# Entry
Amino acid sequence: MIPFFVLDRRASLEILKGLFLKFPNLKFGLMTHANISDKFIDLFRAFPYKTRLKYFDSWEEINETKINRTLKKNIIKISDSGVFQKNGSNRTYEELFEKYIQLKVHYGIIKDVLHDMDATLKSAEEAINVYEDNGFKRKFKLIGVAQGNNADEYKKCYGMLQDFGYKYIAIGGLLKRNGNSNYVTVRSEELLQQTISLIRDEYSPEWLFVLGVYHPSRHELLEKLGVWGADYKGWLFHYDEFYRNAIKKLEAQGRINKEIREKYQLFLKHKLTYLQTKTPENRKKYWESRKELDKTLKKYGTSLQELRFREVRERLEKEVVAKMLNKN
# Structure
């Protein structure tokens, strides 16, 4: 089961490069969307080349050029249409597929319609006709998306996509947004398992992708259900923003002095107070202490960005890579 990290920022690529370099022989996935900037298209298509290696402790022990070549072979890239973003549905399929070619992705996803089987099938039929009639077939693999309101609709949609000629089909629409936040959750664990199991039993696909549902706590389940890959949207949001592990690592390296420690303790105090009270006054104190901590860290050759990079990488190594290594 391959986890795909969803991203559209340069810093995300920099974080992941430092993680991937530690495990160059594992297969990882990257997923982006068609609405990214031209600068990010260039970085994404060339990854891991052109992406800076930042805050990597074992730099002296590696041959980056050699490992980059290995990573290039083991990283699988997917793009979705960005249809659920602002103006994401305005592109024709010819325009969308040209974007996929610019990105040099291995797989490109059709424009689907959330929970609407009929509209998604209509889009899928148009997509595969454009794909097969205009030479795009030689450039990337086209992914159809099964949509529905229940497991039986998903199964029916999946079968019709196969009838259209799709060899690669993902299951979509299993997420719901948590209020107005960036967080999304699976709308029903029961529906997820029921849908995947029904499709698995009926069609026995060798390749099955489930959109948006990856989380380390769900890794073994997806593996057991025979899922080939799933994307992880929340990996940048779910980390310890108290930076405790990163601070401990820098302390072990002798990079934390009295001034940094004092600023860090003040930052912790104001952050905890703000989280307990949620008052504007305490929020201001928290942000001011955060700025002061970053200013002090930079004075001594580090930064809050380094703490964040370290925190995210350590969590991904413990929670995601550990699951992959157990399998391998």
Remarks:
- The longest helix spans residues 304-327.
- The longest strand covers residues 28-33.
- The two ends are 10 Å apart (CA to CA).
- The beta strands are 2-6, 28-33, 75-80, 107-109, 141-146, 168-171, 175-177, 184-186, 208-210, 229-232.
